[in-house]
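stage 2 :: seqdesign
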């Protein structure tokens, strides 16, 4: 499920269908026009449009969800999963490191809005996406980017970089006054990426499976800067220790988007793009709106928030067993991480 919102005089609201905005550069096969007519070509894309269920298939899915949500997790256990959410994700990354999820080489193809409108960058994006489409399509489609074990959710970062340049950059910003973060705008020399003209934030970066495909493309766009955060410090350590991490163009940090009191390492209103890929689903449904509201304050007028996440009746939801349901369409996996399953009807675009 892909969504795009633009921040003008409006904000995201959970509820109905959102407005869709598109940039001047579109994928070769635009979303909405990928119609599967030849079953032999099923792996040419990682998603297809307008796939219709039969009445029997829909009934079977509804029945399965009704069965696996019949027994709810005890309230005291639910409180524990909420309170210790970052711990479960940190454990996940300590076990799997960067081996569990594959790089999202489809990302720039599905969301070309991530990049600034520079011809060289656009050409690079096209090349990168096509270079990987054949090798990654089978994996992307079969997983639908929705693994049975937790994936790309709100993750946040910590630890020092492996090079002198990385360490120096981190130390320069480690003692920033938190009140300045809250009140912005800060003096331009005080925050990472202050000299950039185009800024991106990925929330829930995990081990960097979106970070590095984006960074590889941004090599041709030195005026761009990528922030990435996760509340699992182990995940951020993996990002910072990666050979492709460049402190000159990327700043990874630990952050919990559910904590409104935590400052960001940059002022409000400076971001062009916020990326939420399999992140919001790991947040408790009662807290999702607050997360979206806070993130919207980080965007420039005209900035966009790009969203992709689990859809209702996804195979991942149908595979849950009884006793893993926390609330309606919200589940906990065996490792303590959680997943919510959306419908388009839950998402609306509301003007302020």
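stage 2 :: out
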């Amino acid at each position: 499920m892909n969504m795009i919102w633009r921040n003008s005089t409006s904000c995201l609201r959970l509820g109905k269908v959102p407005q869709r905005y598109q940039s001047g550069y579109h994928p070769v096969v635009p979303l909405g026009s990928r119609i599967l007519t030849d079953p032999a070509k099923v792996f040419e894309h990682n998603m297809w449009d307008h796939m219709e269920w039969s009445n029997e298939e829909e009934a079977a899915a509804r029945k399965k969800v009704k069965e696996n949500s019949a027994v709810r997790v005890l309230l005291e256990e639910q409180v524990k999963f909420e309170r210790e959410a970052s711990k479960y994700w940190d454990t996940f990354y300590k076990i799997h490191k960067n081996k569990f999820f594959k790089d999202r080489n489809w990302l720039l193809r599905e969301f070309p809005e991530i990049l600034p409108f520079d011809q060289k960058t656009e050409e690079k994006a096209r090349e990168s996406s096509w270079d990987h489409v054949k090798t990654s399509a089978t994996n992307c489609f079969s997983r639908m980017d929705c693994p049975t074990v937790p994936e790309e959710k709100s993750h946040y970062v910590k630890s020092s970089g492996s090079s002198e340049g990385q360490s120096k950059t981190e130390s320069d910003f480690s003692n920033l006054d938190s009140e300045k973060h809250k009140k912005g705008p800060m003096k331009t020399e005080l925050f990472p990426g202050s000299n950039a003209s185009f800024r991106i934030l990925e929330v829930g970066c995990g081990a960097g499976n979106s970070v590095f495909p984006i960074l590889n493309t941004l090599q041709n766009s030195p005026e761009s800067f990528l922030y990435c955060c996760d509340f699992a410090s182990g995940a951020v350590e993996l990002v910072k220790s990666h050979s492709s991490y460049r402190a000159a163009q990327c700043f990874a940090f630990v952050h919990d988007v559910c904590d409104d009191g935590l400052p960001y390492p940059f002022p409000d209103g400076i971001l062009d793009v916020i990326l939420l890929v399999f992140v919001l689903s790991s947040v408790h449904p009662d807290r999702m709106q607050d997360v979206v509201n806070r993130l919207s304050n980080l965007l420039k007028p005209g900035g966009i928030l790009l969203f992709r996440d689990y859809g209702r009746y996804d195979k991942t939801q149908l595979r849950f067993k009884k006793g893993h349901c926390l609330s309606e369409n919200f589940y906990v996996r065996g490792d303590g991480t959680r997943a919510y399953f959306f419908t388009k009807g839950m998402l609306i675009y509301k003007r302020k």
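stage 3 :: structure notes
- The first strand starts at residue 2 and ends at 7.
- The longest helix spans residues 119-143.
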